[in-house]
Design goal:
The complex is a heterodimer of chains A (310) and B (145). With 310 residues, chain A is α/β, with parallel strands linked by helices. Chain A is 63% helix and 13% strand. In chain A, helix 1 packs antiparallel against helix 6, helix 2 crosses helix 3 and helix 4 crosses helix 6. In chain B, helix 1 runs antiparallel to helix 2. The chains are: A alpha/beta (310), B alpha+beta (145).
Chain lengths: 310, 145
C-alpha cells in the first residue's frame, strides 16, 4: 500500500498547487485588463501632445525655412557627448511571471556592461524588488531603488522621478537617459527594450507630402499654420518638451505593468496546464499501483484457499 | 450665427485630458480657461490657437444635458490648451473637479511651502511658482463653499 499512498499524497499536493496557479492566473487576467484600460486611457494625452508638437514644428519650420528641423533649439533636444549616463531599469516586485524579470535584468546587464567598457560614469536606478536583488547579486551598484510601483503606476508617483531626471539633465549632471523595460506591443507580444528618453528626439516637421496635405487643409480652412501661439511657439515648446518626456516616461511604467501581468498570466496558465498533465500521470500510476496491490492480495487469498483445500 | 452651425451640432466640444485618462469630454456653450496671464473665454467660432495654461480653474457653462446656467468648475495645474474648430482640448498634468478640492489641505500645503527655506535663484523661482500654484488651488477650493 505504501507506494499507492505516496502517489496519492503527491497527487493531492499537485492538485493544491494547481488551485493556486489557476487562481493566480485569474487574478493576473483581471489585473491585466485594468492595467490595459489605464494604458489605453493614457494614450490620448500623448497623441494630443504630439499633435501640438507637430503644429509647432510645422509653423516654425515654415517660418525658418529649414524644412526638416525645428527653427530653434532647446536644452532637452541637444545631443552632448556621453560622459555620465543614467539608466533606469523597470522590473516587477514579484516573481512567478516567467521570463519577465530575468529578460529585463539580462538586457540591463548588457547595457551597463557596454557603458562600463566605454568608461562612462553610470547612475543606475532600479524599480522592482526582483530587479534590485538580481542586480545586487550580480554585483551591480544601484544608486536609486523604487519599490512603490505595483500594477497601477500613477502619474503622481512617476512625476517626481521624471522631474529629477530633467533637472539632472538640464544641469549637465547626466548626458543621457536610457530606460530598460518591457514594451507592450500586443497581448501576444512583449519585447524587452532599451529606449533612450534623453536627449529627446526632435519632433519631425512635416515632410513634403505632409506639407502638401496641410496646404490642402488650409484651402479648406483647417490649416495647422492657422494656429496662433500664446505667448509664443518657443515658450510653448519649453513647456511641451518636458511634458512629452514625462508622458513617455509614464508610458514606460504603464507598459511594464501591463507586460508583467501578461507574463504572469501566460506563466500561470502554462503552470496550471502542466499541473493538469502531472495529475493525470500520477492518477494513472496510482490506479495501476492500487490495482496491482489488489491483484496481489487476491492471489494471496487464493493461495491460502488452495492450501486449505489440500 | 447660422454659419457656425456645422453638422447640426451646437456649442463647443471640450476635452480635458491628463496623462492618466481623459477626464472630461462634453459639449458646452462657453468655456473659460486659465491662460498663463489670465482667464480667457472661448465660445463658438473662436479662432484656432495653442496657449500655455497657468494654474487655475476651467469653467464650463451651458453644458449639454446639464441644467440651464449650470457651471462646472475644474481645477487644473498648468499644461496647454488647443482651440481648434469648435473644439477645445485642455492638456494638463493634474486636474481636480471643484467638488473634490479640500480647502484645509490646500491651506496647510501653502503654509508648509511658506515656511520652508530656499536658497539660490533657481530654488526661489521654483518656490515662488509652487506657492503661486498652492494659492490658486486654495482660491479655487474656497470658492466652492
Amino acid at each position: 500500500m505504501a507506494k499507492a499512498r505516496a502517489l496519492d499524497r503527491r497527487r493531492k499536493s499537485v492538485k493544491n498547487i494547481r488551485k493556486i496557479t489557476r487562481t493566480m492566473e485569474l487574478i493576473a487576467t483581471a489585473r491585466f485588463k485594468k492595467a490595459m484600460d489605464r494604458s489605453v486611457a493614457s494614450r490620448d494625452y500623448t497623441l494630443r501632445l504630439a499633435k501640438i508638437l507637430a503644429n509647432i514644428a510645422a509653423a516654425t519650420a515654415g517660418g525658418a525655412g529649414t524644412g526638416s528641423t525645428l527653427g530653434f533649439s532647446h536644452p532637452l533636444l541637444e545631443v552632448r557627448p556621453t560622459k555620465r549616463t543614467a539608466v533606469l531599469i523597470l522590473t516587477g516586485n514579484r516573481g512567478l511571471c516567467g521570463g519577465y524579470n530575468s529578460n529585463v535584468v539580462r538586457q540591463a546587464q548588457a547595457i551597463l556592461g557596454q557603458w562600463r567598457s566605454e568608461k562612462v560614469e553610470l547612475h543606475t536606478a532600479v524599480s522592482g524588488k526582483r530587479g534590485i536583488s538580481a542586480l545586487k547579486f550580480r554585483g551591480v551598484e544601484i544608486d536609486e531603488r523604487y519599490l512603490q510601483f505595483e500594477d497601477k503606476p500613477e502619474f503622481d508617483q512617476v512625476a517626481p522621478i521624471g522631474r529629477a531626471y530633467l533637472e539632472e539633465y538640464s544641469a549637465g549632471r547626466i548626458d543621457r537617459l536610457d530606460v530598460v523595460y518591457t514594451r507592450f506591443d500586443s497581448i501576444a507580444r512583449q519585447a524587452t527594450v532599451t529606449e533612450m528618453l534623453l536627449p529627446l528626439k526632435a519632433p519631425e516637421a512635416p515632410s513634403g507630402s505632409a506639407r502638401a496635405t496641410a496646404a490642402k487643409a488650409a484651402a479648406g480652412g483647417l490649416a495647422s499654420d492657422d494656429y496662433d501661439f500664446y505667448p509664443s511657439a518657443q515658450s510653448i515648446l519649453e513647456e511641451l518638451l518636458p511634458a512629452s518626456f514625462m508622458a513617455r516616461l509614464f508610458k514606460c511604467f504603464l507598459d511594464s505593468a501591463v507586460s508583467e501581468q501578461v507574463a504572469r498570466m501566460v506563466a500561470m496558465k502554462a503552470a496550471s496546464e502542466n499541473a493538469g498533465g502531472l495529475i493525470k500521470d500520477l492518477s494513472r500510476r496510482y490506479n495501476r499501483a492500487r490495482q496491482s496491490q489488489i491483484t496481489g492480495e487476491i492471489m494471496e487469498i487464493l493461495g491460502g484457499v488452495e492450501a486449505l483445500k489440500k | 450665427m447660422a454659419e457656425s452651425k456645422r453638422g447640426g451640432e451646437t456649442g463647443v466640444r471640450c476635452v480635458i485630458t491628463t496623462p492618466e485618462a481623459t477626464v472630461l469630454d462634453t459639449r458646452a456653450e462657453f468655456i473659460s480657461v486659465p491662460l498663463f496671464d489670465g482667464q480667457r473665454g472661448i465660445g463658438r467660432g473662436h479662432a484656432p490657437f495653442v496657449g500655455r495654461l497657468g494654474v487655475g480653474e476651467v469653467r464650463i457653462t451651458g453644458e449639454r444635458g446639464g441644467a440651464a446656467g449650470a457651471l462646472r468648475r475644474t481645477f487644473i495645474d498648468g499644461g496647454f490648451v488647443e482651440v481648434g474648430h469648435d473644439e477645445v482640448t485642455i492638456i494638463t498634468q493634474r486636474s481636480i473637479p471643484a467638488e473634490k478640492l479640500d480647502a484645509a489641505a490646500a491651506r496647510t500645503d501653502l503654509e508648509r511651502l511658506k515656511s520652508a527655506p530656499s536658497h539660490g535663484d533657481e530654488a526661489i523661482t521654483a518656490r515662488m511658482r509652487s506657492e503661486e500654484a498652492a494659492r490658486a488651488l486654495l482660491r479655487a477650493a474656497e470658492r466652492k463653499g
